[in-house]
Amino acid sequence: MASGGCALIRFALRRLLQAVPILVGIVTLIFLLLHLAPGDAATAYFNPNVSPEIIDRMRENLGLDRPIHEQYFRWLRAFFTGDFGYSFGQHRPVSAVLADALPNTLVLSGVSLVLIFVVGCAVGAVQAVRQYSKLDNVLTFTSLFVYSMPGFWLGLMLILAFSSPALPDALRLPISGVTSIGYEFMGPLGKLLDRARHLVLPSVALGIASAAGVARYMRGSMLEVIGQDYIRTARAKGLPERQVILKHALRNALVPIVSLLGLYVPLLFGGSVVIEVVFSWPGMGRALYNAILGRDYPVVMAASFFFGVLVLAANLVVDLLYAAVDPRIRRA
Amino acid sequence: MDVAQVKECGRRVPAARAATYFPGVLRSAALSLLWLVSLPLASCTGGGQDDSERPLILGYSAELQTLNPLISTDQNANDVIYHLLYTPLVVYDSTYSVRPWLAESWELGEREVVFKLREDVRWQDGEPLTAHDVKFTFDLATDPSVGSPLGAVYLADVSEAEVMDDHRIRFRFASQLSQPLESFFWPPVPRHVLEGVPPEELSRHAFGRSPVGSGPYRLVRWQAGEQLVFEANPDFAPSLGGPPRIPRVLYRIVPERTTLLAEFLRGDVDVYGTLGPTETGRVEEAPGVRLIAFPWRMFTYVGWNTRREPFERAEARRAMAMAIDRQELLTAVLGGRGSPAVGPIPPWHPYAPELAPLPYAPDSAVAILERLGWRDTDGDGFRERDGQRLKFTLLTVASSPVLSDVAQIVQAQLARVGVQVEPQLLEWQTVLSQHRARDFDAVLTNWVLDNFRVDPRPLFHGSQAATEGSANRSSYASAVADSLMDLGVTLTDETEARRVWARFTRVLQRDQPITFLFWNDELAGVRDGLEDVRMDARGELVTLPRWRWGSADGGKPR
Asked: Which chain B residue shows the shortest CA-CA distance from A38?
């Protein structure tokens, strides 16, 4: 066991070291792409009536007049010493922009991730257990339908549905923002519930397609497990069906599902760019979107970097989890 | 695992037994979700509150950048800066004439003006607002290292400021100005807060996000990407009307318009600012809300690249202009909410010339094109000359539904006279950068006037024609137009100035460096029950401090 633990740590360290060149590659590529796009922050944020000399002066103030490699190395040096620079568009430090936006994105993606796996696994497992029943067919149809819907469209439909005047007041979920007006006057429980209500629609819009994907995988995985000899053995030794399904079948069926986590985390962050705009969610995705339109390089760079870190971290966690749940991988 | 195997596995499961557990789990999950969803809001908006305390909720789709007047360039932020947070020296009345504001009076002399400031105006931190603050702001605005748009837009012709005493300040003009007082439609910033900040650091200073103003409202909280919370300034100068009527204003940011419209219609937002022309129908039909359309400072135009064939010749540009039916554009795209444009002076401006736009005359356009040698020789419906087809690319902004609709209609209208137009819809920054670099045939875009001063020189003066990055992106140069503009901006006599601007507009009409299409009306949705709302070309929020909730229920739809 001790040697297994050691191997796991060595494995983790190796993966961490591999992440460094990947991250540097990501930021370099984004830096180049951004600078290839026409326009810059000095033109994006300036009144066209302002004379070209003043715009040039601003460009100088922002360091945008220097050659691109110089800008790149200046940025890289500052970035790795913890100075993320100033946002041209928001006129405040990028660290402040991130401090506001990152937690919101993490909460939204976290809730969506839980939703994806809990709903996906539950639906998939139910379908497997009731294979070829009417319920199975309905759920198959529904999940394929949901899987093929674009998130932004689903988001807009949810918004229209939940702002219908026909709905009773209590069912009219918030369609924008993280908190209600008057949030600061609520009690602690009220605040929590208010935030939870605001999370419902965006997290559903962000996660439902992936949940449908997980359900499909889970159904297949569960069916395979249920057909195994050890399940028959469990039944044969007289275990209650509940225990057979929940303990023996479900646990084993979940192993391949863990690897999906690594696939869905990047999808979540990509999706958050659109969903955060649709639901006015003040997170990183929206900050990134606005920053790209405004050529706000420091924000784009920092946001992409953090998205990169989060995706790599999620993949690392998946690999570690996989190694943890499957002894064969650990030994290999 | 292939499909056959799955089927095989499935048959071995005693389905009835196994199935009893999961639906139970699902059912309880669904029930708890429903419970969460249906919990009544701990604190509802609006309903049941005393109307005198009811907050006003504004909804906008664009984020604000900064509330520092020295560096702000965005229209929505300027609306807040000029009308809610600060007190400009002078303001405009509803006829767009200058009237006193922070300055209670002035003496206009030969190339100078002395302002007498009100003595009861204070900064929101309690310090008095004095002439020193005004001078401090002037110095920063004209310092090139700040790069302030105030300096560029208002103060280009003001050479010097001199404090005479705490409440009197003298400004000297570099040249004689037609509308000298228009140079002072800007608010001072507090010297005691910003003194010592290096000028090039100003745009990064925290002041832009936590400003100390002097206006009827103060900013209490700025939740980035969500909302700005303003509260009435209880100490707002009595001589300027005292504290505003609505105690709390929430400026909400909802980037997606569909979401914003839904929020407005369901009663979570009271004013939907900068509403789009495609959304008017739903607002007009909905109960409890109304649509306000008002003239705005923005015109839509087609700019021709006068350095490229066939637009090098004024005749060719004029032919294009006469083949475009402005009235059709206005009706089809804006639902008639706007007015045809003749020149760069808006029709509601005191200096607006009484001139009809160039007529829609496709026959005359055809005649000009024929005379220039463009004929349809191969019968394909498009004209050619020396084997070259008469075609050009019309560059425009993809994200603007109005502009992309206009581009398509213009394409159809010009096809009727045998001109092939290829609309090219690109992202805004890309359009701007190609336009600035003069890398275009023709461009369809908007221009917004910063204020009510008539000064079209940046757009049309020959001295700007070759300047890289200047606003004269059609590279128009005409000695007659130049001398008329140079004269017009110095004329103090209103009748004479109007005559010169009319002549200038006629020159533009003849030369067509750009073809003016229309002045867009601005639109806003307003909840019933909100009274004394008046919006005009000064801004949507110009009268906000006098708005109030009427006694009727605010029309919150059920």
From this structure: B430
DSSP structure class, residue B349: S
Q: What would be the CATH architecture of the domain defined by A2-37+84-330?
A: Orthogonal Bundle (1.10)
Inform me whether the C-beta atom of residue B73 falls under 8 Å from chain A C-beta atoms.
Answer: yes
Q: What is the DSSP letter of A178?
A: S
The torsion region of residue B453 among left (phi > 0), alpha (psi -120 to 50) and beta comes to: beta
Nearest-by-Cβ selection for A129 from B15, B43, B250: B15
Q: Tell which B residues from 332 to 351 touch A, by Cβ distance under 8 Å.
A: none
Q: Give B 500-529 residues with CB within 8 A of chain A.
A: none
Put simply, the answer to whether B147 touches A55 (Cβ < 8 Å) is: yes
Domains of chain A by residue range: 2-37+84-330
Residues B252, A180: contact at Cβ < 8 Å? Answer: no
Write the ipTM: 0.83
Chain B residues lying within 8 Å of A244, measured CB to CB? 18
Look-up: residue for tokens 């229309």?
B518
Q: Are B39 and A173 in contact (CB < 8 Å)?
A: no
Q: What is the pTM (predicted TM-score) of this model? A: 0.85
Number of H helices, E strands in chain A: 14, 2
pLDDT by residue for chain A (332 residues), tens digit each? 445 567 778 878 888 888 889 999 998 999 898 888 877 777 766 666 666 777 777 788 777 888 888 888 888 888 888 888 888 888 889 999 999 999 999 999 999 999 999 999 999 999 999 999 999 999 999 999 999 988 889 999 999 898 887 888 778 889 999 988 888 888 999 999 999 999 999 999 999 999 999 999 999 999 999 989 989 998 898 888 888 888 889 888 988 888 888 888 888 988 999 999 999 999 999 999 989 888 888 899 999 999 999 888 888 888 888 777 766 665 55
Task: Give the whole-angstrom CA distance, residue A150 versus residue A170.
Answer: 28
